[in-house]
Every structure is written in structure tokens, then in C-alpha cells.
Amino acid sequence: MQETDQLHLERVVFYGRSLAEYKLFFNLDLPGLKGKSVLDCPSGAASFTAEASPLGIHVTAVDPFFENPVEKLRAIGEADIDHVMEEVEKVRQAYTSTYFDSVAQMRSTRRRSLELFCADFTGGKAEGRYVSALLPRLPFADGQFDLVLSGHFLFIYDDRFDYAFHLAAIRELARVSSDEVRLFPPAGMNRKPYPQLDQLRRELERDGIASEVIRSNFEFVQGWNQILVLHSRSRPQA
Ligand SMILES: C[S@@+](CC[C@H](N)C(=O)[O-])C[C@H]1O[C@@H](n2cnc3c(N)ncnc32)[C@H](O)[C@@H]1O
Known about the structure:
Layout: H1 19-25, E1 37-40, H2 48-52, E2 58-62, H3 70-90, H4 103-126, E3 130-131, E4 145-151, H5 163-175, E5 177-184, H6 197-206, E6 210-215, E7 226-231
Parallel strand pairs: 1-2, 1-4, 2-3, 4-5
Antiparallel strand pairs: 5-7, 6-7
The structure holds S-adenosylmethionine.
């Protein structure tokens, strides 16, 4: 039987949030990112890249779905918004009411992100801003990005991806960052902290990757209120 306060998704959804939400849940200083290179992995149907690029932030978005043409991505994105909204209706008590007034408002924000993403995708892919790749292996050089962001994929799908996958994926995200990696949320669909978070952090520490858990400026889903921040090994020495 379905637990009443846990979102149950039947697949890893091709779904995405807006620049305004990224700013909040990753505690981003957008003016400070101007001119910096940022990796968003996986980005799904988020409009972060589409909205941040005109601000002079050099964002590369990665998702395995990016091998598809935009018409197919739009169709998958629309179906996944419908699927998520149906499931959100069943667990509305798990959401705070501070960001969206209603599920309808949440749906229209998701649709706007999907539209912005679709409008940017084909040209952006030709420019190399949208890259099809699959964790735990990324086609980028060591330390290529100033900041790496990974939201709403790792930890929340821990029923489908095991600990070894998480460790390998996070090592890979750290490898391509010259400074920080931010992961949101370090918690599962059940809204509880990832059970092996301490073990994961100890293993990363042994690789020379320091980490901390900080408070996020955003708590839309109750319990998803922290960011795991990694300080990459390839960070330039002061
Ligand atoms: C919910 S979306 C990401 C949303 C976005 N980061 C945000 O916060 O709005 C999750 C994405 O993970 C992608 N995905 C699934 N397996 C993956 C893998 N092994 N490596 C990278 N991305 C993967 C899916 O294609 C999907 O688009």
C-alpha cells in the first residue's frame, strides 16, 4: 500500500524547475556567477540554462534525454508533468504552501520552464550548451567547471540507484569541478536524510574531497531543506 506522505514516481522524470527556484534551493548568488562556467547535471527539462545564459553565466546542461529531438522532449516533458502533478495531488500535505499557492500554479510554472527549455534547446545544443551524457561518466575535462550543480536526481531515486552508483556519480561530478559541487537535496523521496550520507562523505574525504551539509534557502518539499556541498580536490590553491 502507498505511504500517504511520500511521492511515488514510476520513472525518473524528465522534469525541471526555473532559474528562480534554482537560485533558492542551491543558494545561488547569480550576479557573482556572471562569467563563470557552471554544469547542471542532470538538468532534465529545467529552464535554468535557458534563463541563466542571457545573464552571462556559461551553463552547460547535461541529461541522457538530450539525444532526442525537441518535439520528443516536449512530449515526454508534458507527460511527466502530468504524472508528477497526479502524484503531488495525493501527497499535498508533504509540501509547504510558501512557494506555490496551488498545484495548478506549480503545473503552470513547470510548463513555463519546459517551454523556455524547448525554445532554447535546438540552438543551444548546436552551441554545445546541451550535452547528452549519463552519470557516472561525463565527457568533460578535470576541473572544467567553476561550479557543478546536481538537483533532484541523486538521493531522491535511491530506490533505483544503489550506493555504489551514488559514490561513482558524485566522484565524477567532483572530478569536473575546479571548486564546488552542490547537490540538492541529500534526502530521499521519503524526505528523510540519505541513510548512507555519513559513509559517503567519509569515502569522499579519503579521496581528498571535503564536504559540508548546509541549510538551503528553500523548503518547498518538507525535509528537502539542505544542500550537500563538496569542495573539489582540483580546487586551485590560494
Ligand atoms: C528530475 S530531472 C532533473 C531536474 C533538474 N535538475 C531540476 O532540479 O529541476 C532528473 C533527470 O535525471 C536524468 N537521468 C536519469 N538517469 C541518469 C543518469 N544515469 N545520469 C544522469 N542523468 C540521469 C533523467 O533523464 C531526468 O531528466
